[in-house]
Amino acid sequence: MSRAVAIPNTAPFSEEDVELLNRVVGPATAVQRAWLAGFLAGVEQAAGTAHPATAAHSVEPLTIVFASESGNSEKLASDMARQSRKLGFRSTLIDMADLDLAALASARRLVVIAATWGEGEPPGRAARVYSALMKEGAPRLDGVEYGVLALGDTAYAEFCAVGKRIDERLAELGAKRIVARIDCDLDFAEPAANWIGAALEALTPPAAERSRVIEVDFSGNAAAKSNSGIVEAEIVDHVNLNSSRSAKETIHLALAFDGVVPAYEPGDSLDLYAENDPAYVEELLALTSLSKDDALRGELLTARDVTTLSLKTLDSYTALTGHRDVKTLIAEGQAREWIAGRQLIDLVANFPSALSAEQLRGLTRPLSPRAYSIASSRREAADEAHILVSAVRYTAHGRARKGAASNYVAERLKPGARVRVKLRPNRHFALPDPGRDIIMVGPGTGVAPFRAFVQDRRVTQAKGKSWLFFGDRNFTHDFLYQLEWQEALKEGSLTRMDVAFSRDRPEKTYVQHKMWDRRRELIDWLDNGAHFYVCGDVKAMAKDVRATLTRAYADVKSLTPEAADAAIADLERDKRYLQDVY
Ligand SMILES: Cc1cc2nc3c(=O)[nH]c(=O)nc-3n(C[C@H](O)[C@H](O)[C@H](O)COP(=O)(O)OP(=O)(O)OC[C@H]3O[C@@H](n4cnc5c(N)ncnc54)[C@H](O)[C@@H]3O)c2cc1C
Ligand SMILES: Cc1cc2nc3c(=O)[nH]c(=O)nc-3n(C[C@H](O)[C@H](O)[C@H](O)COP(=O)(O)O)c2cc1C
Question: In this structure, are 361 and 488 located in the same domain?
Fold first, then answer.
């Protein structure tokens, strides 16, 4: 008979890894165990990397804090925690939203991985702690050794502003920077993985001071993993939900997976890998006299970000071409103003210069996927996933512009076409227990995850009530999924719905106005334990909704503005005020 084996928690693996190992090794037969032992010993011997048979349990503490909105910083932080545990650190992973600032003073080694959102702002969940960190009264951090990894996007004027401010602030508070900050663009996988490796090395105390550990990394680096999880799907439905007389175009896209359907949950998103506008690429190639280069054309269409124009692009262009006018723009401090609303094509059109294919490629960064909230529940949609994509079109500096991914979806994807997507899970925007009430505020495409919520609750016959606030421009032309909401209201999977159409009347009405009108019931629902969800526009809507809810608390409960603010902060701490905004 075979004896069950349990890997002890003291093993130099993360808790998840110990669990996984136990699942395999636990029920293995004596023969299987002997084979595994021999196999691993053989691998080590062949590689000439024999290690001590047992590892001492490590005691080196490391605190890893992440400030994340769409999960990139969180993923890097959890990769780093896993890697650090294998190196023998006793790592603690903390969402900045849950960070007790006072406790930070006792952290010996600290890593902060922080994204920048809005226009130079912290991710929503992290905002409260971030602002306390920046205020007088933040604890002294003398004796703490730290490093900061900043995530951002060079297309934004305030590139990595949050990571930069945190880095400065930790030093001001007395902490000692022992690894230089890195500011990562959207193609962060490789630089971030390298930084994490270097930071762990810098944070590792000299050998004499630390416990003996096994330094083996079976995981490979994050860069190598970044492409995993991409799957192909077929477009099976492509419908514009706006009327033909609407100024907008919002595509309901149904994707069918013939292999394994990504294991998505309500609240998750899909990263979609788009292709660039062929007309734009042709113009760019023509302006740079590179139209004959088919290999470059293919690459620019599918793999490079050909529209973003950042300060970095301007610097690179000057270095490449020595263009005097661009140099002047930079020297006179006008570069930031000039790039606002412009794209790479404006640079080569306004300041022409001969470029080689390699130089043009070098002016672009890799084309990043775009995230779209999943608008279906797997319990209802089975082997499909639905997304809702609003075509981004505008005119700036006299040129008509098109968002890359949204117009790829709206103009070039047709039923039968195939597209590459990757699941982007979001456990911070999940449905609560089926008995809990939910309030959902989702104007425009912000309504997408709430379609998934309502579908899911219909299938699971959840007992909790649900209330949706939806808004767009015109009732007649822009009421996304109107019939489905009416049906859901009729059968009871949606309890209540309030709509705000901003352009139906002379005075503009938005979802926050409807919330204000219904403030008594809204606060009643929240007092009864409802979860409050906001999805959609980060610039104005999310802030207005929060401000309105704060005012509603103050008004209904006769609170001071400070006490009303505290009530919302409590909701956030309880994970009952949840947002997914972009
Ligand atoms: C977690 C998450 C979920 C999301 N869910 C959805 C969703 O469900 N549905 C959806 O449609 N989108 C969603 N988005 C947004 C989506 O990912 C893309 O950002 C959006 O579709 C635009 O991408 P694009 O490639 O078409 O535009 P891009 O090529 O990226 O161009 C967009 C850029 O154009 C510029 N721009 C846009 N409008 C103007 C203007 N009027 N004036 C000047 N400049 C302008 C801005 O610089 C903007 O950043 C989500 C984003 C995130 C992060
Ligand atoms: C709506 C929106 C606003 C953003 N604003 C900024 C910004 O002001 N500065 C910046 O450097 N990056 C900005 N970014 C880029 C994010 O920081 C970047 O995507 C990062 O990888 C997100 O990390 P997270 O998933 O951990 O939130 C923005 C991204 C989005 C979608």
Answer: no
User: In ligand 2, which atom is closest to the CA atom of 120?
Assistant: 8
Nearest to 520 by CA among 487, 553, 562: 553
Give CB contacts under 8 A, 24+ apart, made by 35-39: none
Task: Name the residue with tokens 């419908």.
Answer: 239
pTM: 0.88
CA of 187 to the centre of ligand 1 (A): 17
Whether residue 120 sits in one domain with residue 85: yes
| Ligand 2 mean position, distance from CA 386 (Å) | 24
Q: In terms of residue numbers, what domain contains 387? A: 230-273+369-424
How far, in Å, CA of 392 to CA of 307, rounded? 13
Is position 224 within any domain?
no
Instruction: Supply the Cα-derived Rg of the chain in whole angstroms.
Output: 26
Same domain, 445 and 548: yes
Residue of 21, 25, 36 lying closest to 3 (CA atoms): 25
**pLDDT tens digits for range 9-47:** 556 666 666 667 767 776 666 656 666 766 675 665 556
Query: Can you name the residues that pair with 531 across neighbouring β-strands?
Result: 438
The per-residue pLDDT for 209 is 54
- Interval 363-422: pLDDT, tens: 999 999 999 999 999 999 999 999 999 999 999 999 999 999 999 999 999 999 999 999
Query: What total of structural domains would you count in the chain?
Result: 5
Taking the CA of 163 as reference, the closest ligand is: 2
pLDDT recorded at residue 228: 81
* Ligand 1 centre distance from Cα of residue 186 (Å): 14
Ligand (nearest to CA of 395)? 1
Pocket lined around ligand 2, Cβ cut-off 6 Å = 68-74, 115-120, 123, 151-153, 156, 158-161, 186, 538, 582
Nearest CA to ligand 2 atom 31: 582
Ligand 1 centroid–CA 403 distance in Å is 7
Measure the CA–CA gap between 193 and 197, rounded to whole angstroms: 6
Q: Do 444 and 409 share a structural domain?
A: no
Structural domain includes residue 55: no
Furthest CA-CA distance within the chain = 82
pLDDT at 219: 42
State the pairing for strand pair 399-402/250-256. Answer: unpaired
**pLDDT of amino acid 155:** 95
For the CA of 160, the nearest atom of ligand 2: 11
Interval 482-499: pLDDT, tens: 999 999 999 999 999 999
pLDDT at 58 over 60: no
For residue 334, the CA-to-ligand 2 centroid distance in Å is: 24
